[in-house]
């Protein structure tokens, strides 16, 4: 099972490429869901060099 969580900055082509990879690698179960607020905050903190625990 793979969960894809594209950020708002991801392009349509980025998502299509990820879906193509699911087909290429014969991943039968996958889903596309929104990134949570906590996940987004964590990613932003990693970009700034701070880690939120």
What does this structure look like?
The chain is mainly α. The protein has one domain (2-48). It has two helices and two strands. It has helices spanning 12-24, 37-48; strands at residues 2-4, 30-32. It has a two-stranded parallel sheet with strand order 1-2. Helix 1 (12-24) links the parallel strand 1 and strand 2. The protein is elongated, with a radius of gyration of 13 Å. The model has no long low-confidence stretch (mean pLDDT 92).
Secondary structure topology:
Blueprint: E1 2-4, H1 12-24, E2 30-32, H2 37-48
Parallel strand pairs: 1-2
Strand order in the largest sheet? 1-2
How far apart are the termini?
A: 26 Å
What is the N-to-C succession of helices and strands? EHEH
Low-confidence blocks of residues: none
> How many independent structural domains?
1
Strand content: 5-15%
Helix content: 40-55%
Which key features would you list for this structure?
53 residues, mainly alpha, two-stranded parallel sheet, 11% strand, elongated
Q: What is shown here, in short?
A:
The chain is 47% helix and 11% strand.
């Amino acid at each position: 099972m793979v969960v894809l969580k594209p950020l708002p900055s991801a392009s349509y082509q980025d998502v299509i490429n990820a879906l193509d990879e699911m087909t290429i690698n014969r991943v039968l179960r996958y889903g596309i869901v929104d990134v949570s607020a906590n996940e987004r905050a964590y990613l932003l903190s990693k970009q700034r060099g701070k880690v939120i625990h």
